[in-house]
Amino acid sequence: MARPTPLSGFPEWLPSDRIVEQHILDTVRKTFELHGFAGIETRAVEPLDQLLRKGETSKEVYVLRRLQGEDDAEASVSAADKQGLGLHFDLTVPFARYVLENAGHLAFPFKRYQIQKVWRGERPQDGRFREFVQADIDVVGAGDLPYHFEVEVPLVMAEALAALRGIGVPEVRILVNNRKVAEGFYRGLGIEDVDGVLRIIDKLDKIGGTKVVAALVDEIGATPAQAQACLELAQVSGDDSTVIDRVRELVDAHAITSDLLEQGLVELGALMTAAAVRAPGVVRADLKIARGLDYYTGSVYETVLVGHEDLGSICSGGRYDTLASDGAATYPGVGLSIGISRLVSRLLSARLVRATRSVPSAVVVAVMSEEVRTASDAVAGALRARGIPAEVSPSAAKLGKQIKYADRRGIPFVWFPESTAADGTPVAHQVKDIRSGEQVEADPSVWMPPNSDLWPGVVATS
Amino acid sequence: MARPTPLSGFPEWLPSDRIVEQHILDTVRKTFELHGFAGIETRAVEPLDQLLRKGETSKEVYVLRRLQGEDDAEASVSAADKQGLGLHFDLTVPFARYVLENAGHLAFPFKRYQIQKVWRGERPQDGRFREFVQADIDVVGAGDLPYHFEVEVPLVMAEALAALRGIGVPEVRILVNNRKVAEGFYRGLGIEDVDGVLRIIDKLDKIGGTKVVAALVDEIGATPAQAQACLELAQVSGDDSTVIDRVRELVDAHAITSDLLEQGLVELGALMTAAAVRAPGVVRADLKIARGLDYYTGSVYETVLVGHEDLGSICSGGRYDTLASDGAATYPGVGLSIGISRLVSRLLSARLVRATRSVPSAVVVAVMSEEVRTASDAVAGALRARGIPAEVSPSAAKLGKQIKYADRRGIPFVWFPESTAADGTPVAHQVKDIRSGEQVEADPSVWMPPNSDLWPGVVATS
């Protein structure tokens, strides 16, 4: 077999880089669980008709077929199998299906996190991933869902991302907006094509204000005054609730009255007030945030890594009034999704963080000769019994070679089991810190490495 | 959308059952890491030609195509994409590819664990899973790999499975054999078709000794005496190294001389001796264990859950001399794979274990009125800061309803934030254990739940 080459769009990490990814996954999971979110996993596949309900994603779906497709003619194959299965391209479609399928067994409001791979058949030359890991949280209600969850969910994500600062993950800025504000404002101006305005406003950073105004006039038939007002709203941003006052000034200037807008401003104000207390400096109201997806109905969120804005949003989401509906009940929700692979890929490629070693072991127990390997096994067993990751040297090579085995993997300690010298003198257990060279007598039932050496750490690359 | 129904062969768990699965995943991962195994993940897809190298699995592969297949005509699509991709059906094929692809960046012997989903297009009526989670460990060497890893690997698995006994997972029995013993014995008898004998011996439990002897005579042309000797070997089993003596008696009785057999017996004896010390009562030598796969060259392993032998092996593997080869080097290895989904499915369906609650939260902080929700947020934040999973009540409903919210999810504690009584008297923070009804004053910066209530537990269903 010739040496294989990587598949474009399917990232894989070397062991030390996987330690970085695993640390991030463990950290976000811990934060989600501290906030009471229950973990679920859904199958990787969904029926194609469910995946294709939103036409815009049809290009991205990987469709499955069994290699021995002729089997499908048999009656034993289920209808779902016949109609075709595809790999999920996000965790929202599967979650909506899971909620409907299990509604009778779930307690609402249901707070769940879900950390899984998703697949998109993107064109590889775009530098996009075809397989990547997402970490989603959503709160979904049966029938209704109070607004305060729209405050809570981005703050949970802020906490999860803040918990990563210690390993060198840059600061984040969570940009928030509220669809009700935008929709109320546009309608108050007399514009009916709300989605049209949002689509154009979404391009503001790319094409600039002048072209946005022109597009609003040309494409959706806004008057120049209406278009200018839409631009003014989109240009409002700020880090505290004074941003609400600035929107109100615009509202007054354009003599807009809208209950929807009023409700949106109250909600956005509540979010900014809570964020100032619970995540100061992290959340910014940014009235141009539109999010492409038309199912958002309230708060919308995007998140940039400060200094890495070119990466785009690493954590996005919003409020939707209908996650799912089964005729009997409608399930509104609010959720956010971290693009773990995108984040990890940048942290590694920009050399922002690294693992302190490439394996879990804190200790290599040396083997003095193959005949007494069991003595080394016993030492390693005693260490593990007290929670110290330890492995036994693969061979009874010269001690220098055994130390090199540890050194190549970044394992900080080598243990020399008790032995008998050539002259019959007993030699006690000793442990060597191979970084400092310091070697001391030690008891396998008592010795502990410093806490910082117990497990591989993830640290900022300085 | 009508209520969807489950897809046969694609298991999903409710939140409380997912806690059971997650506990098992965390436990095996912890054991693997304590032994120094490095975690990796590989992509879900492999080029079809790699997946189909072993003809026998061709029926089981799920092949992928992008829905907009016409794109594939473009030059931008890589060769691998054109030749087709399939979902991996195990973690060994991807691991072999990963080793070859990254050989220059890995330190050998390389000890890795890998916990991922795999997919097989099995016929659903067989009651088999089409998507399931495996947890694999392998040690792979560059060029050579000492025998002692064939002792270590099953003992790591024994430890991982023993760590699950506390939650109610039944005892396991790891059945071991050594291909060298079988091959040396058969060849010593004058039989050349070793794979043929193994294939027939593999059916011993199903068809019985008489039919095995008949099949050996009919199908591979053994003499009745040879066939009887093969059966006698297959019937040897035992829990300690005396089993080696019993094989030697057979060897002497049939006047067999074989260096290969001799080497196999030394290896099997070493495994039994080490197992008697490190996992007493768990490992059994069973000379009929054949394992279907022809790439095993030394030790082979199967594992049964005592009392659930009908489930088949939940953890299998063996030694292979050629995991992968790139012309320059050959990589021998030894590995074992736990079928996590099969295990979890049985634990749940047989009601052997259960989670103590359905969500992570240990505490629900009640909300006295929506105006003072921030006071409840502050209490929850103080608890989380000390590692206590806590959530805030979704509504300021009557306290009875808020308690019911906790009760439905099995959350043991409800916290009542400090408040002011109607007559202006301050009322201190209180926390109620809703199981006992006991309610006490408490300080959110000091109070801790009992350790057993901090996180959801997984316990034996008594």
Concise account of the structure shown:
By secondary structure, chain A is an alpha+beta fold. In chain A, 37% of the residues lie in helices and 23% in strands. Chain A folds into 2 domains: 15-36 and 130-354, BirA Bifunctional Protein, domain 2 (2-Layer Sandwich); 363-460, Anticodon-binding domain (Rossmann fold, 3-Layer(aba) Sandwich), CATH 3.40.50.
Structure explained in plain terms:
The structure is a homodimer of 462-residue chains. With 462 residues, chain A is α+β, with helices and mostly antiparallel strands. Chain A folds into 2 domains: 15-36 and 130-354, 2-Layer Sandwich (BirA Bifunctional Protein, domain 2); 363-460, Anticodon-binding domain (Rossmann fold, 3-Layer(aba) Sandwich). Chain A has helices at residues 15-34, 48-51, 79-83, 92-102, 148-162, 179-189, 194-201, 204-207, 209-220, 224-234, 242-253, 259-278, 340-349, 373-385, 399-409, 451-454; strands spanning 38-39, 45-47, 62-66, 85-87, 110-119, 131-140, 172-178, 237-238, 283-286, 296-305, 315-325, 330-339, 353-355, 363-365, 390-392, 413-416, 419-420, 426-427, 430-433, 439-441, 458-460. In chain A, the strands form 5 sheets. Chain A has a 9-stranded mixed beta sheet with strand order 1-5-6-12-11-10-7-9-8. A 5-stranded mixed beta sheet of chain A has the order 15-14-16-19-20, sandwiched between helices. In chain A, 47% of the residues are buried. Mean pLDDT of chain A is 92; it is low at 70-80. Chains A and B meet through α1, β1, β3, β4 and α4 of A and α1, β1, β3, β4 and α4 of B.
